[in-house]
């Protein structure tokens, strides 16, 4: 569907619908918060019942999320030792065997007939442990899907990686580790085209740093471009999307000159501080090759914030680990997965949809919605159980860090700006099924409203009925049973917190576990402050963002400050 | 993973839809009662909180596994004998009714110690205590001489003389005191061969500051009052008029207000009841701000019988009038509460309840809105509920423990009366005090200060166990010894 994914220059009905849906999330959030407060005052009995119902719902939802967090983490740990490039090479060999009947089986299955060496499949992927069996089981399923689709992947030698780093204020010391990590890939660096998307308005030291990195690393890659994005191009806001789109267009011209077909290119859009693991592009290539509709897909890794995890303040650390966990949980629901932060996608798809939006702050999620709408619902995000690492937001001092963290979270929550645009598109998208529209619209709406309201309901509003209790309520059984039930629910919820703490410790990079055992213990204890942290640095920024959208106070892009010590 | 997600999603939905209503029903008090007629029964509960906490709870003959403060939930409506037992305290017991859907709440049970903590503060033979209610001081005297009058600060438990021992006024006889609740000042009237004198004593500070106001009193007033929050003016009432004394400029405004049959002070306002039965609110400069009653018929019917009314205002909307014969009126229906005999009153602001006492009785009038005539079409207003009628000569009474108890002195005995009860109120005798001496109770300290009956020593008795009152709501303490938990009756 041809749809302009923007809120600029709308008229008539479109403008009306845009404003209506801009107001809706904030209105819903405030209605819930104020409404519950009002009911607590006016009808404390009813409010107490609603709060019990909500608390129980929250508990079950928490258990549900924790369960899939554990499963997702298990899957991540299963895939940690997978040799992705070995699998990529096997896929290359499978291309030759695609017409064989029967299709060769993967070792580990009951009727294997391919593997000459029992227990192995390809280089270094020995079957033996249960984890590897699980990994192979997933691999086998992918191959079966590929087989049924008859959609041959291109040979891995013909697949190129276009990696775009968006830079506005980051100096060389921030960017270079990410570039260096590309040189250490198992995927051939000579098949990687690196582009630094640099803002013209960046300060000279930033520009100099970018060019120095180009000089230093150019020879390691297919090529290394530094694209200067002019300031103030018509139709563009000062957003990251405008910068990377400009760079992507330059890269497209480069690829055309080199006669590299876009369908063989995977583009990865990274923040300046993104550092990938050595097998990231191997994993990405593997998923690209095994997904039949590879030019109708994005590929989402699990973001972790390990670059400066031990130097960052506690509340920033807890929040960003929470973000990683959220992505892990989302990865288990690939039907509704949306791209977030640094991610990858088919370059062909990117070009077809018109690149990233140049006037929207949340370009990372907007590109998914844009593609979904453009391809009439025939687009999805493939979760990759591999990680890439970024910085925890910090500042020169504690207060600056507080401000920076708050502003970053508010920028993340500003993803709610996609809701009105998506809703308008759904009104017109006749080819997207009604069920799919409901599914996505509900997710977009509910996720944002829950983000802005749950923490306040649990921390403050839930206690209002007791506070406002008049005699009639304070003499009732409910007045005494409600706090007891709430206490039991919160005690049960602490099981989830324990699981989260354990997983957060497991997720931490071992090689960066500086300091003693006690540092890890302190890190674990930081999670006890989650109720306070979540209210002020998650729910409040979300409510702030939704309120701004509700009143039409659109946010200018603020580049998150990152510091390394 | 998607399939697994769907399975668990629907499973959790089912769990929610099944258990959420059950939890809500349980929260409302519904329980399943097996038996001859099985089914859902709406239960009630009992909430018990004691001072000190940690008392063992017996419901009937069975010991409950949780200690106070605790909730006894899921009780079928009916009467339950409850007993509370705590070491070094006398057992407390009562039969408590449980109604469906309701909580029977007793949240300020004071357990009586087997031996109350008492201590002698000053082993001098004192004569009397004069309370200055609402302040941190009270007067203690050995004789009626000024030199034998001391000020006791119960916060630091120090005694200091009002007048220096070498003062030339030391030999004068104290004829009366005037004090105002919550004021840190005192007006002392003395007699001597040289005539009457009036001294203004400021009690705050390391030393008592004395000011001689004798020349500002042209006549001996019947009453003297001042606003505790505004010590610029004193108001002396005599023969139906009010003189205003300016303490700053040391001047007198004689007959500042005239033709009064009653007056009171509250928040820098004078409430004046005139002899034509109008009732006005004026500022301290004498300017009329409001006319509160201008109905001669009503005024006469209310105030026509007495010569003078003390007017006590405890909040913006409740005004009390105490006549010379102990008649108690208020600006709320039914206006006339007691026809005679009231000797004193104490208002508990938080619950809007007035404690009144006569020579032989203690009573309470509840002015909280939820209770006053809520079910009647014709508003009747609250009534006096007489809680104790066996007194001989009740002279003092105090609210204790956030209005849950009353401490009163009947002749030379001090009693503690428990109000939060569903049966007959518990009455405890606390102490015997020196004949014709007063007592002082401090809610903040939780202590009763008195003069020992035989020695006259200034002593205190601990009424409230202080350290145990700072509890958060509903913390429950479990029995240390494992016992069979209480079964629902």
The CATH class label of the domain at 2-114 in chain B is: Mainly Beta
Indicate the CATH topology of the domain at 2-114 in chain B.
Answer: Immunoglobulin-like
Order of helices and strands of chain A, N to C? HHHHEHEHEHEEHEHEHHEHHHHHHHH
The major pleated sheet of chain B works out as: 8 strands, mixed
Using the 3D structure, state the CATH architecture of the domain at 2-114 in chain B. Sandwich
Q: Helical proportion of chain A?
A: 55-70%
Q: How many beta-strand runs of chain B?
A: 42
Radius of gyration of chain A: 25 Å
The rough form of chain B would be described as: globular
Please describe the structure with a list of short key phrases separated by commas or semicolons.
heterodimer; A: 565 residues; alpha/beta; eight-stranded mixed beta sheet; 56% helix; globular; B: 489 residues; mainly beta; Immunoglobulin-like; five-stranded antiparallel beta sheet; disordered C terminus
Give a verbal description of the structure.
The complex is a heterodimer of chains A (565) and B (489). Chain A has 565 residues and is of the alpha/beta class. Among the domains of chain A are: 12-79 and 441-550, no CATH class; 84-123, no CATH class. In chain A, 56% of the residues lie in helices and 10% in strands. Chain A contains 19 helices and eight strands. Chain A has helices at residues 12-42, 44-79, 84-97, 130-149, 172-183, 204-217, 240-257, 280-290, 314-331, 347-353, 363-374, 398-413, 418-428, 434-459, 464-467, 471-474, 477-507, 517-526, 530-550; strands at residues 160-167, 192-199, 223-229, 265-271, 275-276, 297-304, 343-346, 380-389. In chain A, α5 (172-183) links the parallel β1 and β2. Residues 108-127 of chain A have low confidence and may be disordered. With 489 residues, chain B is mainly β. Chain B has a domain at 2-114: Immunoglobulin-like (Sandwich). Helices cover 7% and strands 48% of the residues of chain B. In chain B, the strands form ten sheets. In chain B, strands 26-25-24-23-27-28-29-30 form an eight-stranded mixed β-sheet. Chain B is globular, with a radius of gyration of 28 Å. At the A-B interface, α2, α16 and α17 of A face α1 and β3 of B.
């Amino acid at each position: 569907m041809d749809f302009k994914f923007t809120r600029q220059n709308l008229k008539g009905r479109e403008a009306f619908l845009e404003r209506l849906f801009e107001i809706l999330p904030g209105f819903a959030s405030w209605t819930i918060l104020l409404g519950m407060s009002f009911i607590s005052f006016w009808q404390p009995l009813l409010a107490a019942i609603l709060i019990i119902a909500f608390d129980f719902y929250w508990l079950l939802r928490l258990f549900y999320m924790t369960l899939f967090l554990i499963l997702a983490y298990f899957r991540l740990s299963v895939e940690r030792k997978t040799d992705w490039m070995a699998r990529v090479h096997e896929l290359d060999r499978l291309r030759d065997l695609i017409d064989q009947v029967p299709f060769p089986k993967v070792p580990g299955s009951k009727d294997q007939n391919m593997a000459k060496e029992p227990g192995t499949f390809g280089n270094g992927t020995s079957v033996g442990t249960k984890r590897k069996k699980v990994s192979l089981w997933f691999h086998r399923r992918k191959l079966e899907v590929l087989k049924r689709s008859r959609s041959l992947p291109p040979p891995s030698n013909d697949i190129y990686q276009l990696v775009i780093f968006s830079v506005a204020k980051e100096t060389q010391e921030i960017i270079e580790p990410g570039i260096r990590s590309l040189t250490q890939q198992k995927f051939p660096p000579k098949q990687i085209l690196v582009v630094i998307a640099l803002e013209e308005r960046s300060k000279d030291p930033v520009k100099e740093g970018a060019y120095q990195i180009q000089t230093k690393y150019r020879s390691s890659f297919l090529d290394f471009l530094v694209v200067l994005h002019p300031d103030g191009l018509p139709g563009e806001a000062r957003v990251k999307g405008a910068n990377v789109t400009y760079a992507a267009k330059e890269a497209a011209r480069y690829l055309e000159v080199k006669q590299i077909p876009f369908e063989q290119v995977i583009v990865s859009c990274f923040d300046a501080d993104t550092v990938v693991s050595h097998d990231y592009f191997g994993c990405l290539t593997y998923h690209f090759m095994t997904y039949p509709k590879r030019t109708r897909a994005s590929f989402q890794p699990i973001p972790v914030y390990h670059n400066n995890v031990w130097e960052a303040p506690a509340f920033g650390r807890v929040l960003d680990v929470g973000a990683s966990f959220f992505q892990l949980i989302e990865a288990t629901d690939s039907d509704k997965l949306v791209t977030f932060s640094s991610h990858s996608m088919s370059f062909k798809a990117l070009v077809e949809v018109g690149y990233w939006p140049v006037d929207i702050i949340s370009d990372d999620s907007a590109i998914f919605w844009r593609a979904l709408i453009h391809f009439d619902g025939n687009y999805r995000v493939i979760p990759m159980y591999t990680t890439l690492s970024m910085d925890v937001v910090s500042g020169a001092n504690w207060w600056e860090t507080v401000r920076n963290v708050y502003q970053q979270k508010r920028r993340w929550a500003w993803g709610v700006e996609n809701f009105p645009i998506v809703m308008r598109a759904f009104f017109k998208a006749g080819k997207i099924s009604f069920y799919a529209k409901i599914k996505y619209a509900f997710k977009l709406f509910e996720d944002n409203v829950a983000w802005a309201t749950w923490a306040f309901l649990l921390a403050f509003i839930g206690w209002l009925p007791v506070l406002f209790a008049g005699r009639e309520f304070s003499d009732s059984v409910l007045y005494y049973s409600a706090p007891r039930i709430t206490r039991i629910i919160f005690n049960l919820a602490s099981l989830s917190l324990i699981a989260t703490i354990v997983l957060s410790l497991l997720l931490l990079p071992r090689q960066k576990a500086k300091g003693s055992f006690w540092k890890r213990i302190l890190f674990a204890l930081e999670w006890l402050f989650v109720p306070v942290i979540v209210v002020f640095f998650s729910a409040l920024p979300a409510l702030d963002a939704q309120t701004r959208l509700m009143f039409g106070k659109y946010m200018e892009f603020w580049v998150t400050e990152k510091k390394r010590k | 993973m998607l399939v697994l997600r769907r399975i668990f999603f629907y499973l959790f939905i089912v769990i929610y839809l099944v258990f959420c209503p059950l939890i809500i029903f349980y929260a409302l008090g519904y329980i399943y009662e097996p038996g001859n007629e099985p089914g859902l029964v709406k239960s009630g509960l009992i909430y018990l909180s004691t001072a000190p906490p940690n008392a063992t709870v017996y419901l009937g003959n069975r010991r409950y596994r949780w200690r106070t403060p605790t909730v006894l939930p899921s009780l079928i409506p009916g009467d339950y004998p409850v007993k509370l037992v705590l070491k070094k305290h006398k057992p407390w017991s009562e039969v408590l009714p449980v109604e469906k859907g309701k909580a029977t709440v007793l949240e300020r049970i004071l357990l009586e110690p087997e031996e109350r903590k008492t201590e002698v503060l000053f082993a001098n033979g004192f004569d009397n205590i004069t309370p200055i209610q609402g302040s941190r001081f009270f007067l203690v005297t050995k004789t009626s001489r000024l030199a034998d009058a001391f000020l006791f600060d119960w916060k630091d438990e120090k005694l200091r003389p009002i007048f220096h021992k070498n003062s030339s006024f030391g030999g004068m006889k104290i004829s009366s005191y005037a004090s105002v609740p919550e004021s840190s000042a005192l007006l002392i009237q003395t007699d001597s061969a040289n005539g009457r004198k009036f001294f203004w004593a400021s009690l705050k500070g390391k030393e008592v500051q004395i000011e001689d106001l004798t020349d500002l009193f042209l006549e001996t007033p019947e009453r003297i009052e001042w606003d505790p929050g505004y010590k610029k003016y004193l108001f002396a009432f005599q023969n139906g008029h009010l003189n205003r004394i300016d303490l700053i400029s040391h001047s007198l405004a004689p007959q500042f207000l005239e033709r009064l049959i009653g007056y009171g002070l509250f928040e820098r306002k004078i409430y004046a009841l005139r002899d034509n039965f109008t009732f006005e609110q004026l500022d301290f400069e004498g300017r009329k701000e409001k006319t509160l009653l201008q109905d001669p018929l009503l005024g006469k019917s209310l105030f026509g019988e007495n010569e003078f009314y003390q007017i006590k205002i405890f909040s913006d909307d409740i005004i009390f009038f105490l006549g010379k014969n102990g008649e108690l009126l208020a600006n709320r229906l039914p206006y006339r509460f007691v026809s005679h005999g009231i000797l004193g009153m104490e208002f508990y602001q938080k619950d809007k309840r007035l404690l009144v006492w006569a020579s032989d009785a203690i009573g309470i009038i509840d002015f909280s809105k939820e209770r006053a005539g809520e079910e009647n079409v014709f508003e009747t207003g609250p009534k006096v509920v007489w809680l104790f009628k066996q007194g001989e000569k009740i002279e003092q009474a105090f609210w204790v423990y956030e209005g849950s108890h009353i401490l009163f002195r009947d002749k030379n005995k001090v009693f503690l009366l428990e109000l939060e009860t569903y049966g007959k109120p518990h009455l405890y005798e606390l102490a015997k005090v020196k004949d014709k001496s007063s007592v002082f109770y401090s809610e903040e300290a939780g202590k009763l200060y008195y003069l020992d009956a035989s020695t006259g020593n200034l002593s205190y008795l601990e009424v409230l166990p202080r350290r145990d009152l700072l509890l958060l709501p509903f913390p429950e303490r479990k029995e240390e010894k494992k016992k069979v938990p209480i079964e629902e009756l």
